[in-house]
Amino acid sequence: MVCLRRLEEYAKENNIPIMExxxxxxxxxxIKKHNIKNILEIGSAIGYSAIKMCLVNNDIKVTTIERxxxxxxxxxxxxxxxxxxxxxxxxxxxxxNIELKDxxxxxxxxxxxxxxxxxxxxxxxxxxxxxVIISDNLDFHGLVNGDYExxxxxxxxxxxxxxxYIEYLKENKEFSTEFISxxxxxxxxxxx
Length: 192
Ligand code: SAH
Ligand code: MG
Prior knowledge:
Rossmann fold, 6 helices, binds magnesium ion
């Protein structure tokens, strides 16, 4: 039998950073409440959040991009197990190589944390006029607002980039953002 619990366990055992439970609950409730139908996700991992979003309603379609081959193959398998092949279009590539013509009600940014401004800039034109961009992991396990000094250089770099992204959203003239302390920190961004 296929079940979401098994995906959650697989992710835990293999250190795959899928969304935290209250974060994914917020996201799926948002989709339901705002009647969202077309979703673009940057960063599929093993397909967990794409499957969760798709299961909100049977007329929802998700396009999702994953660059890591092993995770992509695992995602394909999971999507097939859930019988969602006809509603989830998974692309195996680096998101920066992809040009999409479609527009979406929701763009979910959940890939490399140091590239969020670039993802936002690249895909904002694929957002419907009244669409929303949701970004995950803005707290980065509490590190964005925590003690900075003892972190490794690599983690410091990510934290600094996430802070830049938060500033970028706050100062954005075209978009306004609500920051929500749920899961690992979520930003909800809409056109002004
Ligand atoms: N959204 C998933 C978790 C994604 S984890 C869930 O909650 O279930 C982030 C994923 O983004 C990783 O698997 C990583 O390989 C992928 N990724 C990072 N940078 C990327 C890029 N530039 N293009 C495509 N995928 C990327
Ligand atoms: Mg995430």
